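This section describes the prediction task in plain terms. A model, or a person checking by hand, is given the sequence of a single protein chain and must write out its three-dimensional structure as a string of tokens. No templates, partner chains or ligands are provided. The sample shown here is typical of the held-out split.
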Amino acid sequence: MEDWIARHKAEMIEDIKSLVEIPSVAKAREKTSSAEDFPFGRECKRAGERMRQMAEKYGFWTEDCGGRCVRIQYEKAEGLSPDRIEIWNHLDVVPEGEGWVYPPYECTLKGDFLIGRGVSDNKGPAVAVLYALRYLRERGIRLHYQLSQVCGLSEETGMEDAAWYVKQYGSPKLAVVSDCRFPLCYGEKGRCRMKFFYEGELPHIEAIGAGLVSNSVADTARLVLRGQQESFPAKGLGEKAAWGELSGNMTVKYRDGKLHLTAKGIGGHAAAPEKCVNPIGILSDFVEREESLLLTKEERSFFGFLKKSCSDGYGQGLDIAVEDKVFGKMSCAGTLLCFDGKRVSLEFDLRFPPKTDINGMIEKMERQAKPFGWRLSESNVKKGYVHDPDTQEMKILLNAYRQVYGEAGQPYVMGGNTYAGFFENAVGFGPGIPRTPLFDFRHEKALEELKLPKGHGGGHACDEVQSLWGLCDAIKVYVIAFLALDQKTGER
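The expected answer:
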């Protein structure tokens, strides 16, 4: 297998590049006469078609599932078996955002890393799964169970693809989701998305905004204020500083008769606040402290809520923090701040332990926001799950990981949400960097050589990276796992 992977490594890189070059950010259904063909936009459809072409080139049977998913069958079969195993990936990506060192849609090869939007989340792993299937197929291996790879097209924007798929085709006997890290994820926090509107008057605010999607912390927040004085010193920038000078993460400039404020944070996945610095919190903290700004009492209250809700990442400022022994702390990130010229909205992404009283949490947060002039307009809850990590299938997958990585590895739970929550029996099992002293060190050491800015490199961050050795190791893990599952099936 080592020799086969080495011979096909360059080809695998080119296949990944061909997907990364497609800016497949999922969008609302396009309003065209052929809208049914583009449930999540033309680029997502194009990414799905590219994946199908790739799979068919390697001899697999493929199917477009309602424009929402692509199914790749290891062996051609009539109908779907209730005992089938499906391995899931997604081909949509979060928007690229600002501040990249490398081109987001060119898939740069730097040392042993690929850099580009989707290389790790989740186009690179999708190709690694396909290559594991390809390896088995080229060796003429027949399986005793029905195996398919399914690639969704709207994982990052609510997972309507998986919900639709399960409704149409039912749940497989086992779903393996290749959108996390090894060794094995057996549980995920629930997710709650909330959207608030500000109901007061904001006479001095001409523009304000941060973020691109609701499941990512922004890297930049911007504010434009009317009716400000040109040369007031800014206490937040130093007693003697004037507008236009830079200090820390804040930039303040006066032009065209208006004050332009920019806060720089560290963007990333909403489920990992420990890796992020929310620029909404930075901006609102500065505005609240800066007495020289000409603002109404209502406007200062407006920024007071932004500061309380967007500064810590765990809901402490809103007095809603919770924690349990298995899943740890709930995360609470203010992610998407928008102003349409009339009303300001702020979206939150909460990742909560499955036993949390989330309805009570929503009510409490609504009460906290009301005195500041904010009103809850909508909320959406996706429940978390915990599966038994000691089933025979789970043990087979863990053993495959151990054979490749040479260590036991401990199953884990996480705050990230994947397709796994839609299936009766599912597990997260993918080529993210394993959290062990040995491999974390190897990853961090190699990343240092890329000299990326702080906060870059993550799945939802600028300059997203994926190690090639991680993808090659994943091929081995999947091959071993698929064969071991086949042996178990054949023994029945």
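For orientation: Residues 468-491 form the longest helix (24 residues).
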